Amino acid sequence: MEKLNGMSWSSVLVLCGLLPLIAQAGREMPKLSNKKLCADAECSHPILIARALQDYYPQDCRFIPLRQGQLVYVYAMLKDYGNLFWAGSVQGSYYGEHEARLGHFPSSVVEETHALMPAEVEVKTDKWDFYCY
Fold first, then answer.
1. Which of 45, 72, 96, 118 is the most exposed place for a label (fewest CB within 10 A)?
2. What is the arithmetic mean of pLDDT over 94-119?
């Protein structure tokens, strides 16, 4: 493996905390829930807009990082374990040239700011809900 100032690239990735993220890329992760509540059967319409109460730094690729004050469009509320996690997207200059990031986050790190549609449709989750790229 090529060296950088006497260190291998894998050593650099470990020091930067990136090796676990790269190792997880492209695989199915454990389900956080078997069901989710959405506005429609495809979970394609946002249920609500929320604002991040604090910075959130996820531990694996199923989750999205949030910055305090950032707006989050919520598309689904995971149902099985007391509504602990929501699924949504964030946009903005924080992600540079990326249009949006999709993923899960704890519902406790956001507050609802605008209700958009009722979350009345129960949908089963599948492996693609928790797949890491």
1. 96
2. 84
